[in-house]
Specification:
The chain is an alpha/beta fold. The chain has one domain (about 5-139): Glutaredoxin (3-Layer(aba) Sandwich). About 45% of the residues lie in helices and about 20% in strands. The protein has a 5-stranded mixed beta sheet, sandwiched between helices. α3 (about 50-65) crosses α6. It is globular, with a radius of gyration of 13 Å. It starts with a helix and ends with a helix.
Length: about 140
């Protein structure tokens, strides 16, 4: 059962205010990701504490402080937009479902991935550092 949208909206806005495109339907996911050849950030957002404390702030810091950035920024919200999240996870080849998670896609493949176990318990600064390194290498 999806979460109450009143609680989720501020969590969505933490990313959308940065210019991250929110995908709420399966069709929106396919439209954004199916033919993306340029580096594309895919954030599987979540209501959990490690998304609030680590993942979303880490993404914000990386985007604010990196010289190179993905051409496209996208997100889905796990536990809320169920079909969109399930479809987005199909683009993250070789990784089990994980939320939050952050993938950098390039030419239809996963070029870089942070799964929940690599987010939980780490600082937003460490996550931003990892993302900035991935941006530098793949963007």
């Amino acid at each position: 059962m999806p979460y109450d949208e009143r609680f989720i909206t501020p969590m969505r806005q933490e990313l959308t205010r940065l210019g991250v495109q929110e995908m709420r339907t399966r069709e929106e996911v396919d439209q954004a990701l199916a033919e993306a050849t340029e580096p594309t950030l895919l954030v599987v957002n979540s209501m959990c504490g490690c998304a609030a404390r680590n993942a979303r702030p880490g993404v914000a810091m990386a985007l604010a402080n990196s010289q190179k950035k993905p051409a496209k920024l996208t997100t889905v919200f796990a536990g809320q937009d169920l079909e969109a999240t399930a479809r987005a996870r199909e683009y993250i080849h070789g990784y089990p479902p994980s939320s939050p998670s952050i993938a950098l896609l390039k030419d239809g493949d996963v070029a870089f991935m942070l799964e929940r176990h690599q987010i939980e318990g780490r600082s937003a600064e460490a996550i931003a550092h990892d993302l900035a390194g991935a941006f530098e290498q793949h963007c």
